[in-house]
Amino acid sequence: MASAAITLAADAPTLSSANTGFMLICSALVMLMTPGLAFFYGGMVRVKSTLNMLMMSFISLGIVTILWVLYGFSLAFGTDSGSLIGWNGDWVGLSNIGLTELWPGYTIPVFVFMVFQLMFAIITPALISGALADRVKFSAWALFIALWATVVYFPVAHWVWGTGGWAFELGVIDFAGGTAVHINAGAAALGVILVIGKRVGFKKDPMRPHSLPLVMLGAGLLWFGWFGFNAGSWLGNDDGVGALMFVNTQVATAAAMLAWLVYEKIRHGAFTTLGAASGAVAGLVAITPAGGAVSPLGAIAVGAIAGLLCAMAVGLKYRFGYDDSLDVVGVHLVGGVIGSVLIGFFATGKGQSTATGVFYGDHGFDQLWKQLAGVGGVLAYSLIVSAVLAFALDKTIGMRVSEDDEVAGIDQAEHAETAYDFSGAGGGAARSVPAPVATESKKVDA
Questions:
Q1: pLDDT given at position 129
Q2: pTM
Q3: Could you tell me which residues come within 8 angstroms of residue 115 by beta carbon, excluding any fewer than 6 positions away?
């Protein structure tokens, strides 16, 4: 027994300062993605909604952080119960976790894993906000985030990444959040907009982005932060899988951007900056679940397919009449589904998993069916529960601002501010104008 214990101790993981530092940097990169998303969305709305759009992302940094510390981490990654939810009382409030206590099977502390996953939990509800631009009460949105994170995100994260979660045990591959983040957020967005309805003037009034430079800035920050989002999800950099994910993230994003632009040129006759930014995000979304399982050539295919199909999907809202303001459904839901399903075709068996897709190994469909099960389960749950939450809030405190406030501008109505001060935009410095000299007739009249 003694020798067995010594052998076990020798084989047990030990703290790696390199992996710990790497993961802290990745956590900071993922945190940067939420402000990046705020800029990306903020530039896409009209001037009168800019600040509200920024705040709908920023508020998630506050609300989800507190919930994650209090109970979210425990629900997502605690001891499994029925393959649906986790719980660990020692993690409530994080007060009973040792500073150097290792995450099981890895060389990083529990605190580092906790904060890395916190950043995922923060950005996921922020993604939803783009579908609801221009028309939602800020207080109702804040309450929705708290409820949605608790009853949708935390359980789904457990399903996909928690030991014992049904998708995890089934063998669904999701390297960094195709199901748990993007399908989850995209399906939620669809559920909410079906409940709260369209913006005033949808399909009638022009609703063009007010600042394309802001959109490009946001897209650039997202692309940069996504390397932490994706490569960091291997929780270390010892065996090259994280490096593979890093390369595939760049490759797929480039392919998607180019595919979107080609489609846009053929369909609409121009290469637009909005198309470049949206195509890049579509590629980032699609490679998120797949990048650890496919080769760089597979990543090109995943990105190109996602860029093309997402570019086509953003127009579906006009055909079917749902008002997805900033194309969350068309990019995140569709892109997440594409990336997750294509694993079933392009998985090589040489990356994060030995599972192979239809085009590799024994050319079987086993992994494809698993991917479809994961996609369908998360999509259905998030869509239905999100719609129920939105309906309950709408019937109690009300989800939408008044029509007058929406038309006048939600920034003033909800935040008493405007994004831009045009009061000094009339030209040069104000000049002192002398008072008019009284004429002789006026003197007489006086």
A1: 97
A2: 0.92
A3: 24, 27
